[in-house]
Amino acid sequence: MVAGDQSDPADVLIIGAGPGGYVAALRAAQLGRSVTLVEAERVGGVCLNEGCIPSKQLGRFAAAIASVERLAIAGMPGLAGAPDLIAFHRHRKQAIATLVQGVQQLLTAAGVVVVKGEARFVGRTRVCVQVGEESVRYFDFKDVVIATGSEPVALAGLPFAGDRVVTPSAALDWDRLPASLLVVGDDYVGLELAVAYSRLGGKVTMAVPGDRLLPDFDADLSAVALRGARIARVDVRLNAAPADNPAFERVVVSAGRRPKLSVLDLAAAGLARPAGPFNVDPQLRLDRHVFAIGDVTAGLSLAHRAMMQGRVVGEVLGGRPAAVDATAFPRAVFVEPEIASVGLTEAAAAASGREISVGRFPLTALGRAVIEPGTYGFAKLVFAGGGGPLLGAHLAGPRSTELIAEMALAIEMGATAEDLALTVHAHPTFAEALMEAAEVSLGRPIHVRPPRGSAN
Amino acid sequence: MARFEFKLPDIGEGLAEAEVAKWLVKVGDHVVEDQPVLEMMTDKAAVEIPAPGAGVVVEQRVAEGEVVKIGAVLYVLETEGRIGGMNEQVAEPKQAQAAAPQAAPQSESGVLTPREIIDFAGTPVLAPPAVRKLARELGMDLAQVRGSGPGGRITAEDVKRHTSAPAPAPVVATGDRTPLRGVRRRMAETMAESARSIAHVTGFHELDAGAFAIVYRRLRDSADSAGRRFPFDALLVRAAAIALERHPIFNSSLDDERMELVMHPQANIGVATATPEGLIVPVVANAGARSLDDLAAEVDRLAAAAREGRASVADLRGGTFTISNTGAWRGAHGTSLIRPPEVALVAFGRIEEKAVVRDGRVVARPVMPMSVTFDHRVIDGEQGLSFALTIRGLIEEPEQLL
After folding, report:
1. Which of B34, B141, B256, B376 is catalytic?
2. Of A179, A215, B296, B374, most Cβ neighbours within 10 A?
3. Contact B114 A32 (CB under 8 A)
């Protein structure tokens, strides 16, 4: 210790107040720990301030335009004028401010001390937080949780440049529609932006490096995503080189995210800086008193994964025997049609060498879908063979992002096709597609023709 | 005709299970309402479980010596009419079978489970999240549990059953083996729990009991002449009650899950009592508020009930502090185990004449050994000593006890 250093004790110190960090702080505080939460920007992290929440706001705004267009055939008059992005952003920011304030109130009520500033390790049990231009504070912790999240990756030949070549987060802030927009990437972040700006009236081109969108989803979902993007008038170019083109007014690069660890100075705490994300145990431990959660850990970069990890680490810090043992994390993509997925893709299930049974039910055979013009999609369920449990669910169509919750529960509970087929689903709803897909896998569908020769 | 599954009702606050001590009827016996059907051993007291109504006992589901959880089905009663309130009516066994889901049993080896989705290397187990959590809390490996649900799904009941399943018997020398039951079993469990969880510290003291013995004899004789009894322990309970008032931390509990100290509003003082069945501790409720006569009557009643095996569950529950008088067995100094969730215990030994130094001269005085044992997680050494000195003062100047 340097003479004259003033330091504060921190029973539990959490670095990063995103969906992982703030949840961990609340749970640990509920269980009697005294928590200091350090955040360089705003509580809620990327998700709340510049990721999931604002991108859904933009996506839902744009989807409303698409609904009106689709209903034209059923007599709905068209839009009176162009969408007012300035009004949209005003409302958007208010909603986010409400959410941020809500998190802050929860933290205050729980007695969590929030410190604003960038943290870096200066010892095995000590961090230094840059709280102002020239002022720092030191904290001596008993336990520390690294929850610093992730940052967007730039492409080698296409660096971020000013406000023309930007990250997906930056693209959510535009209050004027670009005359032409190039989205480089194939992930759901880029796809959501492309579809939204296209629906808002922009001329959008998407340069996809490979031969499919959403390459980490089931192939059927990639196909429906491509169809949907094209119906939304996105000019999707497959196998396109990720290069700039001065013809576009704006360029968004969506090439994934990487753990944000550089400013932490892990070496000062005696921790090795991993090449990629941290590998943690089910208690989220890196070392006896060092934990890591969220995007800095290996796995899908998802807010709900971070939140689950935050809850678990909070309980571990509170002395509870908690562990992350969720079987599958659902994913929701807010495009046209909505796409959602949980568990194994058909290809991965088949590649594992097991016997599987797949049921796929098209929305064209579903009453609820037919009454809405322009609705298409499917429910595809992958079961272990021999009457085994649900392994994966892949949904495309309206409300898929909500329906996936039932599928996640089914996987966690070990539900079989019989369980889903024998669970009564309300009529007429999109949820019936799940029950029907289970029936298809059992070879005895009602609303589509059964496979030839089946007599179940 | 209707069949009632009689489930073990909640017979005492905080009791999760009880042992089947004795069946009082046989299968086929006709019972009338409120007739005792079986005897359960709970928290050191025997409780008779009465029939909820008239009928014929057609099935006994538990055996003597079995430890069963609250809510477990004990027996099936076939009745003429409906019995309200106690347990729900169940269908005839044939109907029940017909209504059961037709899930065909599946070969365990053929079923692949979702656990493999994230953990191909791990042992496949099929259990809902809440069951996984339960297993984790019990420190149990789910791979060792046999699932009774469809497709081998593991239920919470399976996990609990696995916990209580006997471990494979270690290879030990052969000998006469007797199952530990009832009071002795409870003693084994409570004392092991005490030794495991409590940080015991014991201080030893020698008290001049000259004046105390005189006061006791006076009280005993005057009670005798009134045709009542004045137990020696009543005076010790009195001393403890006064000391607890001055040192309330000794009348507390540690909630170690939440790390919170619970201060008890009244002193319920247990009196450790040896019985032919083993050690039991009847409790003098609200000892601090009782008159000396009342205290004497209650201590006398409890001791008799305990010795004769008549102590009720209520008599044995709610203790906040314990005294142990080993003097009757010529006990001198010894350490004690605290009864969780209490935090302290005081033990008194036999009063004997000893050589002590008074004003520079060696004299013979009646000396009573005392040990104060406390939970160092809650009470520190200085508090422990201060409590002991308070009791010492009360015993050596016993007028304060009257």
Report:
1. B376
2. B374
3. no
